[in-house]
Amino acid sequence: MTELPASDTDRRADDDARAATVRVFIALAPPDDAKDELARALGPAYDAYPRMRWNRIEDWHITLAFLGELPVAAVPPLLAPLEALAASRRPVELALRGGGHFDERVLWSGIDGELEALHDLATDVRTAVRESGIAFEERPLRPHLTLARARRDDLGSVVEAAAGLSAFTGRPWPTDRLHLVGSNYGRGPGPIRYRDIRSWSFTGH
Fold first, then answer.
1. What is the pTM of this model?
2. Nearest of 14, 108, 29 to residue 69 by alpha carbon
3. Residue 50 burial by Cβ neighbours in a 10 Å radius (0-12, 13-18, 19+)
4. CB 175: neighbour CB atoms within 10 A?
5. Residue 199 forms beta bridges with which residues?
6. Is the CB of residue 169 less than 8 Å from the CB of residue 52?
7. How far apart, in Å, do the first and last CA atoms of the chain sit?
8. Is 53:148 a contact under the CB 8 Å cutoff?
9. Is the pLDDT of residue 12 over 50?
10. Are 57 and 39 in contact (CB under 8 A)?
11. In this structure, are residues 167 and 146 in contact, taking their beta carbons and an 8 Å threshold?
């Protein structure tokens, strides 16, 4: 058997370690017509700032809890608690509104509507995660929808694009599902891609 050079062996070990983990978060997603409404409002910014790294519309989401990189085996214990949580909660009515930026690097749209209920949902989600034995960094919930990131030499574009969204007011919509999402973050030079590991309808009253 031919031995791999040390560098190739290390690279193979890194690839195996990444394959055994997944970057996970729990989120809500706006319905397609609400996303289309915001995409139309972003039309001038798409044209004016093509160098920004725009997120795919189908990947837009509102993060409730970011769990980070987890062993694949840590995911199944989350399924039953999150399913039970979704079944016990009614939909929350939200809307996309306005725009802003984090540190002139990240462009976002704001969230309006039943924000107290949204914060309560996030608290219950995080409690369910902790009770499943998963430790994660507790970050304050700042409800938003990430739209794009600036390149290092083009920070002004995010500020200008955010100003262009300041008057945007989207229609209200009910959250229909709770999403457990995995991403391929850190697995290559291409854009981040998200996929539902599982999702559940809100069926409470």
1. 0.84
2. 14
3. exposed
4. 25
5. 179
6. no
7. 63
8. yes
9. no
10. yes
11. no
Strands, E assignment, the chain: 21-28, 53-54, 62-71, 93-102, 106-113, 144-149, 173-174, 177-183, 194-201
Which neighbouring-strand residues pair with 110? 97, 144
Each residue's pLDDT tens digit, 55-112: 999 999 999 999 999 998 899 999 999 999 999 999 999 999 999 999 889 999 999 9
Q: Which residues belong to the active site?
A: 61, 144
pLDDT tens for 160-200 read 999 999 999 999 999 999 999 998 655 555 556 788 999 99
Sign of CA dihedral 111, 115, 118, 123: positive
Q: How many CA atoms does the CB half-sphere of 10 hold within 13 Å?
A: 3
Question: Phi and psi dihedrals of 76, rounded to 5?
Answer: -55, -40
pLDDT digits (tens, 9 = 90+) for 29-57: 999 999 999 999 999 999 999 999 999 99
Residue type, 152: R
**Residue type for 185, please?**
Y
Pairing between strand 194-201 and 177-183?
antiparallel
DSSP helix/strand/coil, 136: coil
Token pair for residue 146?
Answer: 């990430």
Q: Provide the percentage of residues in the chain whose pLDDT is more than 70.
A: 86
